[in-house]
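Predict the structure of Glyoxalase-like domain-containing protein.
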Amino acid sequence: MSNTLTSTAIDSVTLDVADPAAAKRFYSNAFGLDTQIRLRASEAPTTGFRGFTLSLTVSQPSTVDSLVSSALGVGATTLKPATKSLWGYGGVVQAPDGTIWKIATSAKKDTGPATREIDDIVLLLGVADVAASKRFYVDQGLVVARSFGRMYVEFAAGASPIKLALYRRRALAKDLGVAPDGEGSHRIAIGSSAGPFTDPDGFAWETP
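Done. Here is the predicted structure for Glyoxalase-like domain-containing protein.
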């Protein structure tokens, strides 16, 4: 029987980190993430860009600033300062464990006081060929929610707390403010009841 993903494609995301206890403190204090991200100890070698980012979508610029500030206050480093752009407002930070986080909103003005509420968590994979990776995931049973040719694909999340999206690796690296080259482990595992498989770019899906 072939593996088939339901619309609840992602059950969990696990980050491989050197110190899970320290990482847990960071994510709780920086973003208020306690159950959404799993952590496990790993010394798997990796250099350069790991090929993905986790994006936090929020409602307004002041919330972006609040989350970026709290992340920097507990050890994150700035890759791109929060600033306005054509699409909205956002910034990019790197956690002490090396994971890159983008915090962004499509709004350009505040409509109320700053909060720490996160509307969506998006796992954005940088892939060599968006069209080929899209076909691969569709064959696994994922449902496309939005698609912009060979540039960007977003899949329906169903009841999952984390959305999956695909972006060209070089374009993603440029958006994050890092060089596109990288080697070794991605330092991330995606949990799904569909069972284990590895996608064309080496991202591992595991049984949670």
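The longest strand covers residues 77-84.
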